[in-house]
Task: inverse folding
């Protein structure tokens, strides 16, 4: 696997850091407003490296950032993120903020821009995903949306979205939660442990005017207090391994789940884990070496 490192901070300090990291060939991603005070900020990317070199590279960059924070009295002003390129979506195309795309034929996703009007039509989503996974471009997100569309068309028996309580576990940007609401779900709950993802998802819910049907909360299984007709989970395999045995507890009898985030090579492991959670696979979907399962819990 290969990784890249993203560094974000105030522009004047990032320009200085760019010079200090010159030997690592840092690349400017974008320059934009920094936080809420209007000060300019920037984002740098250090090009991909192998997993066995990641810790050394992170240590070097962290030391450079720490020294700069002390020298400039900027403690806590920087954000570092190591991105596994196998599970990371490409950064947005800043040169085309209004460009729309179709992760599935029945849905249009448009990158949010302050000049755009809130999305109110049933097949369009505005999306801001600065810090959260879920732009709609990664194959696993598209597989989840394809699975949801098949469920909406009742490919696995009667399922009425307008009556459904839906859970999006590990919601990231909130794209699946909002898509469920756009498909007609009565209530949707999105849960994520990452506070940055929660902020992005709540903002997305607001700009799509879905606050009355989509609730985003920070947490994990402990944040849940009821079962659901449909569960959505686009997670890396390690998360399924740690927490997958909980899935069946939060599904109604006869309820459906759409799981993705794993490759074809991990499909057997995820199938076995799902079986232990009391779920059976009713459909397998594949795209570009990635996989998704649609599963069902036996009726009570």
Result:
């Amino acid at each position: 696997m290969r990784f890249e490192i993203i560094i974000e901070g105030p522009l004047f300090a990032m320009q200085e850091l760019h010079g200090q990291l010159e030997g690592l060939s840092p690349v400017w991603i974008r320059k934009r407003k920094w936080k809420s005070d209007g000060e300019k900020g920037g984002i740098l990317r250090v090009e991909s490296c192998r997993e066995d070199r990641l810790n050394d590279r992170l240590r070097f960059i962290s030391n450079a950032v720490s020294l700069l924070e002390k020298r400039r009295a900027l403690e806590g002003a920087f954000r570092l993120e190591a991105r596994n390129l196998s599970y990371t979506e490409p950064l947005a195309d800043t040169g085309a903020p209004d460009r729309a795309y179709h992760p599935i034929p029945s849905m249009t996703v448009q990158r949010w821009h302050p000049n755009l009007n809130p999305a109110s039509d049933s097949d369009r989503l505005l999306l801001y995903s600065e810090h959260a996974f879920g732009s709609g471009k990664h194959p696993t997100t598209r597989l989840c949306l394809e699975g949801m569309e098949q469920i909406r068309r009742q490919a696995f028996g009667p399922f009425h979205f307008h009556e459904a309580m839906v859970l999006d576990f590990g919601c990231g940007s909130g794209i699946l939660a909002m898509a469920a609401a756009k498909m007609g779900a009565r209530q949707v709950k999105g849960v994520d442990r990452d506070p940055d993802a929660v902020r992005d998802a709540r903002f997305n819910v607001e700009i799509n005017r879905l606050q009355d049907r989509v609730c985003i909360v920070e947490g994990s299984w402990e944040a849940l207090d009821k079962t659901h007709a449909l569960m959505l989970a686009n997670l890396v395999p390690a998360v399924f391994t740690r927490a997958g045995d909980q899935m069946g507890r939060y599904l109604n009898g006869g309820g459906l789940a759409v799981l993705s985030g794993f490759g074809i090579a991990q499909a057997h492991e995820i199938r076995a884990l799902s079986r232990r959670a009391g779920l059976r696979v009713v459909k397998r979907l594949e795209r570009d070496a990635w996989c998704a399962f649609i599963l069902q819990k036996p009726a009570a």
The radius of gyration is 20 Å. The CA atoms of residues 93 and 185 lie 31 Å apart. The longest strand covers residues 251-263.
